[in-house]
Design a protein that fits this description.
GO terms for molecular function: kynurenine-oxoglutarate transaminase activity; pyridoxal phosphate binding. By secondary structure, this protein is α/β, with parallel strands linked by helices. The chain is built from 15 helices and 12 strands. It starts with 13 loop residues before the first helix and ends with a helix. The model has no long low-confidence stretch (mean pLDDT about 95). Bound molecules: 4'-deoxy-4'-aminopyridoxal-5'-phosphate and glutamine (GLN). The site of 4'-deoxy-4'-aminopyridoxal-5'-phosphate has 14 residues, from helix 4.
Amino acid sequence: MKHLTKLPNIGTNIFSIMSALANKHDAINLSQGFPNFKSDPLLKDLVSKAMQNGYNQYAPMPGNLELNKAISRKFERLYGTSYHPETEITITAGATQAIFTIISAFIRQDDEVILFKPAYDCYEPAIELHGGKTIAIQLAAPNYSIDWNAVREKVHSKTKMIIINTPQNPSGTVFTEADMLALQDITKNTNIIVLSDEVYEHIIFDGNKHQSACLYPDLKARSFITASFGKTFHNTGWKMGYCCAAKELMEEFRKVHQFNVFSVNHPMQKGLADYLQEPNHYLELSSFYQEKRDLFLRLIKDSRFQFQAAKGTYFQVLDFSEITQEYDVDFAKRLTIENKVAGIPLSVFNENNKDDKVLRFCFAKTDETLKKAADILNNI
Ligand code: PMP
Ligand code: GLN
């Protein structure tokens, strides 16, 4: 059989490649972003109870109403704004499905989508599949700050969507209030949809406040916010998430959602709804991960890697330019095979694979694992 690929430039993603390499060579895996410690037994009990109690058939298409209500209350509590649980929140199979479905519902042939690089890897293929055009704005290491005047110059009648991600994977940076106000200003009186990927909303450090798109009324009206329970409750394998948007936008989202997944895992939705009744389950996350970030950075402070502390996410970027001038992908592979610690090269997330000689390391690991990894990094 012959077929023309719809994604000629896409191979296996870097997370699969580096995790497989780490496993093959028995290396400490700080590459793909997932915790190596157990999640709260209470959450697992609540999910098991939901199964015992009969939550085993299809959930309603938008989600189990108790979960949608719990999410709605979380928005009110944290951001002082509301999303209607029945019409403005939809439970998804992780943030990835929400992101794909948003792009699928709105992007047509030749629509332009502005995003910032380094960018998480799932946006661009979805845009391409729908005939859209990615307009990438490359940010400069190590601060990765955005020149909003440059963004303004890229916005015109074909601009259909702007994708933002704060706290940002892979750079570990966060948007400031000034960033959000600039974005709000640029999109005012346009038909541009903002996809605000906020999967790390609860992992933000040094007392900073997460700048959710929902805090800014005009932004909120044009934004989809995507979230992931995998990140928040240490269960990336459950692939549970949600998205929120104004009713009219959500109606379009659901037209697609009902045919690419219809509804998602019901007992997990019920368990998560019960677990969310206690706000500390997500409020404690920033301090939990800040301790891990600080431990990791303390341990490697005398190494030859340079860094600026991550402001959010569970990823730390390390600059290796004092160690070698190798291409970052080659260095990441060599580090995994020879030194037995795996990270992710950032060039794969950059425009034209720009190589800033930095690797991303995931610190969502036990203290013991972080100590072992630091011992290795200190000897390089
Ligand atoms: N967006 C970003 C920025 C991510 O880092 C991830 C996963 N790490 C996702 C989306 C996807 O989340 P999920 O695993 O819930 O699909
Ligand atoms: N989001 C995770 C990361 O950034 C990986 C998810 C995946 O493997 N696709 O490491």
